[in-house]
């Protein structure tokens, strides 16, 4: 969790949480620094507390961002002797890190499958089927589209996603269709089909 740090803005005098995405783990291998939304920080705090960690990351902390519920069987106590039982490994917070994209992918797909099962059990077969086709990459698309549709600047969204070319980010905006809608409405109001 060393990727999280505080940054003070001299203009407003406030201190913000920032997450540094390193080149080796970044999509597209582009390093970037991202301001952390409060909702994400709240979720991170709850996540950390569930693993017995302090709610906020500490400067220089070596704990991985994504932890496995499994413990490290090679962990040693303060005496240097291996910790034998699971309860003690959990007590000493000997959590194993998730170190691969595949590991994270499997976790997200597993959570999506649980949600799809719940939808199916509730009788919402169509939504369950749709969710079973979902992938972690959909989260990037959902974030990008939501950010753009709520008025975020396309350059900022491109920076968050690590896109070097704004055209890559523009795919999420449906700008071409919106331009045609606006031009048609300006030239011939009432011509286009509108949802009631």
- Note the run of SSEs as H and E: EEEHEHEHHHHHH
What do the pLDDT scores average to?
Answer: 84
**Gap between N and C termini:** 48 Å
Structural class comes to: alpha+beta
Determine Rg (CA atoms, Å): 22 Å
Counting copies of identical and different chains, the oligomeric state is single chain
Tally of alpha and pi helices: 8
Shape, principal axes of CA atoms: extended
Spans of at least 5 consecutive residues whose pLDDT stays below 50 are none
Number of strands: 5
Tell me the domain tally: 4
Q: Which range does the strand content fall in? A: 5-15%
State the strand order across the main sheet: 1-2-3
Helical residue percent? 40-55%
Give the biggest beta sheet. Answer: 3 strands, antiparallel
Q: How would you sum up this structure, described in words?
A:
By secondary structure, the chain is α+β, with helices and mostly antiparallel strands. It has 4 domains: 1-65, no CATH class; 69-98, no CATH class; 100-134; 136-196, no CATH class. It contains 8 helices and 5 strands; from the N terminus they run E-E-E-H-E-H-E-H-H-H-H-H-H. It has helices at 38-50, 86-91, 101-121, 125-132, 136-149, 154-161, 166-170, 175-187, and strands at 4-8, 15-21, 32-35, 67-71, 95-97. The strands form 2 sheets. The chain has a 3-stranded antiparallel beta sheet, with no helix packed on it. Helix 5 (136-149) runs antiparallel to helix 6 (154-161). The longest helix has 21 residues, at 101-121. The chain is extended. The mean pLDDT is 84.
């Amino acid at each position: 969790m060393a990727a999280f740090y505080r940054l003070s803005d001299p203009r407003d005098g406030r201190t913000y949480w920032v997450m540094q995405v390193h080149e080796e783990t970044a999509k597209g291998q582009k390093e970037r620094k991202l301001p952390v939304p409060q909702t994400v920080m709240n979720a991170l705090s709850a996540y950390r507390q569930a693993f017995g960690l302090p709610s906020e990351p500490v400067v220089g902390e070596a704990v991985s961002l994504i932890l496995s519920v499994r413990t490290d069987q090679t962990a040693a106590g303060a005496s240097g002797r291996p910790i034998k039982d699971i309860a003690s490994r959990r007590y000493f917070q000997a959590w194993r890190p998730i170190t691969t994209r595949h590991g994270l992918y499997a976790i997200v797909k597993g959570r999506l499958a649980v949600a799809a099962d719940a939808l199916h059990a509730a009788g919402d077969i169509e939504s369950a089927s749709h969710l079973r086709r979902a992938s972690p990459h959909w989260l990037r698309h959902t974030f990008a589209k939501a950010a753009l549709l709520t008025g975020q600047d396309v350059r900022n969204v491109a920076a968050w996603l690590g896109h070097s070319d704004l055209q890559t980010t523009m795919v999420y905006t449906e700008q071409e269709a919106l331009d045609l809608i606006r031009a048609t409405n300006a030239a011939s109001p009432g011509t286009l089909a509108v949802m009631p």
